[in-house]
Amino acid sequence: MCAMPTATAPSKYPLSPVRLEADYAPALSRWLWLVKWLLAIPHYVVLLFLWIGFLLVTVVAFFAVLITGGYPRALFDFNVGVLRWSWRVEYYAYGSLGTDRYPPFTLRDVPDYPAHLDIAYPEHLSRGLVLVKSWLLVLPQLLVAALMSGGYRFNGGLAGLLAFYAGVSLLFTGRYPRGMYDLNIGLHRWVARVMAYGLLLTDVYPPYRLDQGEREPLG
Length: 219
What we know:
The chain is mainly alpha-helical. The protein has helices at residues 36-39, 41-68, 73-92, 133-137, 139-149, 157-173, 178-198; strands at residues 18-22, 115-119. The protein has one domain (26-198). The protein is built from seven helices and two strands, in the order E-H-H-H-E-H-H-H-H. The longest helix has 28 residues, at 41-68.
């Protein structure tokens, strides 16, 4: 008797330096998602200034990598913190609608909050790649990311559409469909990897692979 083929285990996947994870909450408020656009405004105002800082820091980091081959750790931690904050807000709001718990105002990881993002600090980055990866090498991935979430964002695109349908489901049933949730998180995970590469935070090219669900592959 022939043995049945088995699926590739997550442990066979290459480990990504970008870790985006979330905790599934099947039962959420039926109506709160209708007003999250209002509740999230304070975060959006703060993030506007944080992203201005992010862009300025990225310019400084570009020259630092070009000259020294290293990304200054303080600048790296700040930019990762901005991405982390953005992900928490979009997980709460219209990127995912994955939680009713209001996001904290901090760049640091909050262990008991249901949305997390981290990027492993690179001890060395290529001085040659920094010249081309943010506009040329990332372009094919950016086109995919645009379909998934509108580009270098955590809302919009297919992910935003899934979040809207999840909101409608919550309105009528009070539950977030699990398959829809897993796909939504997978799309955000892909986009986070593209963002990390295109914004100079890693030299690891994002894989063309949709890793769905709450947790990253074990690697």
